[in-house]
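Researcher: Let's run the pair from yesterday's discussion. Sequence first, then tokens, for each.
Model: Starting with the first of the pair.
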Amino acid sequence: MSPEDLDWAALGDEAVHLLRRYLAIDTSNPPGNETEGVAFLASVLEKDGIAAEIAEAVPRRGNLTARLLGTGRRPGLVLHHHVDVVPADPRHWSFDPFGGAVEDGYVYGRGSLDMKSVGIVQILAVIGLKRAGIRLDGDAIVLATADEEEESAHGAEFIARHRSPWLRGAEAALSELGGILDRSALTRPIGIIGVSEKTGLPLRLVAHGVAGHGSLPWPDSAPHRLVRALGRLLAAERPPRVLPETQEFFATLAGALPAGTAHGYDDLARALEEREFREAFFANPHYAAAVGTTFAVTGLSAGAKRNVIPPEATAEVDCRLLAGDDPEEIVDWVRRTIDDDQVDVEVLRPPRAPSRSPTDTPIYRALAECLRGRMPNVSVTPAILTGSSDSWVFRRAGLHSYGFSPFVLDEGELFRIHGVDERISVENVRAGVRAYAELLVSVLGGGAWT
């Protein structure tokens, strides 16, 4: 049997069916419960004779790997997805977030795009190649991990530290988030391959002051100090920094926007020196996040009673770093900007230095060709993701890691990630299986029939 002999339509339907079953397994993090999810994946793989191994970092926080063995003439490729999902409140959804509903050509459910659909497409691609009897030159390594939506400690980090043989022989990993943007505002679609991402530097600001009665408006109370410190931090500007991949993304975007709407995008660093352009550019939070260190206040706490001034007030700040940022320099800058010796700045965990994967590699070129196969008129560009994924773990372990999917996404899908009524089109799932299988043959080579 050859790839052409496979019933791709049937494989696509099988992928939709399995995705619906996978979505019905609640792996919300917290608490996780990924073991139930990876047990389901193991049963799918083992039904086709592909052995799977499961390892728990702690009880019920399971991770899985499985290999379609190649001849060893090429390095392997890690096909990664995370099993955990963010919580979903069913009161706000049109469908049961863990029901796997299909309506008007879409599969609905928490994790339908982020990122259980990717996992199912990867696994069905591997199963399809095995059914076709294709022997690749490199191993196709399925990797499903826990805890990406928190700190990865029970997932990718656990694998890298305690199950490193699972990554043995691999040169690169494919993870989240990439694909084709086909938005109404674009004159042609844009294909995105993630080559880096901003990483978190979680900070806590703790202000100290004298406790007292709420009827006395002490100017230097802890809450007042904290409010002023946050005001100074959020009002301050760090110089923008345009990485080469970011410049390439915006140049590509300029070519896909209507004429006259992308002034300055061809030389972003120069354009950002102009105050009017900078203010308009920074008004888009996605764009602002792409060119600098960002700070978002995500939690505030102080007193327990309205008429009692507390001696302490705290703020949680989500700081995100670009590749090349120095975490120590940023923390020092925050302290100098706040300029108050009664406000402590705490780093809540060791910083993760962002890193980048190159674009001049055969695998990057194969990913770009895969996207062109999905939409021939697509313009492909590298991108630096403003969120985070597990790719930093794989890069630290010595692998190139790319954010990739073969999905064509519009606003109706992309902007529902972590939101209400998350969904993916049935067509994306069906077509994604074949696209991923052809990608594996392209990257891992071989094609010999067993």
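Model: Moving on to the second of the pair.
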Amino acid sequence: MFHAILRYIRKERGITQQTLADDMNLSVDTVRRWESGKRKPNYEEILNLSEVLNVSTEVLFGGKEWKNERLSKELSNTLNLLHSYKLSSVDIIILVAMLAKMAIEQTYPLSAKDYDILRILLDRTDEALQEKRER
């Protein structure tokens, strides 16, 4: 899992294997071996990777922070998609409510990730409604 996460984070940040190797004073072959899963970095290399990529070591090894970061990105992409359709806040709230209702009634099967995104959307919707009430 480490090798896939490392590759994902490096690419997401627009860093080449060569640049990462240069920034860490390593050979590009070392980075390639890490990303292919043929070799794992030692403790000092892990700390250096964490610093260079600006992520925690927990993220590098797929801990809770990593899952939250990925989920947050999925949520952001979902919200951006909804906004790209020029939906009003009310339309989005209605859509989220309909999805929640279908999921509860099990007429539209959702994956665990979909449930997590839906839960966060519902939480954000609830927060937005609460803010409107307080105004």
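Researcher: Give me one sentence on the second I can quote.
Model: The chain has two domains: 2-62, 66-134.
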